[in-house]
Amino acid sequence: MLTIDHLVKRRGAHEILSGISFQARPGRVTGFLGPNGAGKSSTLRILLGLDRATSGSALINGKPFAQLANPLMTVGAAFDGSGAHGMRTGRAHLRWIARAAGLPRSRVEEVLDMVGLTYAAGKRVGSYSLGMGRRLALAAALLGDPPILVLDEPVNGLDPEGIRWIRTFLRERAEFGNTVLLSSHLMGELAETVDDVVIIKRGKIVADGALEEIIGTHSTLEDAFFALTAERAGDTG
Ligand SMILES: Nc1ncnc2c1ncn2[C@@H]1O[C@H](COP(=O)(O)OP(=O)(O)OP(=O)(O)O)[C@@H](O)[C@H]1O
Q1: What share of the chain is helix, strand, coil (3-state, %, to 5)?
Q2: Of 16, 150, 189, which is best to mutate to test ligand 1, by the most ligand atoms within 8 angstroms of its C-beta?
Q3: What does pTM read for this prediction?
Q4: Which domain holds residue 51?
Q5: What is the domain count for the chain?
Q6: What residues does the ABC transporter domain cover (predicted)?
């Protein structure tokens, strides 16, 4: 369970997050949706202990990231890019993380297989395509077999086959009871993948609920999104 509670982030005079609250629950894929600059990455960075909140909290199973006993086995995270040094091979990158976490080498081969990257595991990460880099980042997130996944724009750079693969993969994780939170600004794609939707705009939550509730009387999630955000067009916050 991920619990964001009255989270505020200020940078100088600029309020990036204005007291946002939402949850991502086990057994559900939760889509965190919003236009560029809305505050999605800022929220996920605080949740994963990469940045500090001004006030409020972002908790993973009731604890801040820094207090997790086994972070890699609790939450898997993937942000922009592969997260690996270009001169390293994909396999070496994963082995390094696995060793630091006390995981067996065999787990590296398992996650390479899970993300379909075994064929390129011996190649330098610098030669990977964008999509291969995303798969490597996902493999790293899966190393500790965590019950929670937090993914920032996971379909960016993936080709149609890759997008279908990740959608199926994340749906399966949720069906096994995992908690999956993913951010995106691609509404059409998100509608195919998620159970719940949280929409953020200019640091404020403008909608939060089950996909069907959010779509409501609109024909698509995209239509609902524009209607919801347009209703607040006069809101300067
Ligand atoms: N390191 C930083 N220093 C100053 N401002 C920042 C920093 N990181 C983000 N911001 C600002 O915070 C706001 C939210 O950015 P954030 O990256 O969280 O949005 P986002 O919803 O993830 O957008 P995108 O879809 O473009 O990734 C933006 O106005 C951005 O300019």
Answers
A1: 40, 25, 35
A2: 16
A3: 0.91
A4: 1-26+39-59
A5: 2
A6: 2-227
C-alpha to C-alpha distances, 31 to 54, 84, 91, 151, 185, nearest whole angstrom: 24, 26, 30, 10, 10
DSSP string, 165-204: HHHHHHHHHHHTT-EEEEEES-HHHHHTT-SEEEEEETTE
ipTM: 0.91
Instruction: Convert 26-65 to b/e letters by CB count within 10 Å (16 or more is b).
Output: eebbbbbbbeeebbbbbbbbbbbbebebeebbbbbeeeeb
Residue minimizing CA distance to atom 5 of ligand 1:
11
CATH classification at residue 118: 3.40.50.300
3-state secondary structure of 223: helix
Q: CB-based burial of residue 12 (10 Å sphere; 0-12 exposed, 13-18 middle, 19+ buried)? A: exposed
Residue 124 domain-assigned? Answer: yes
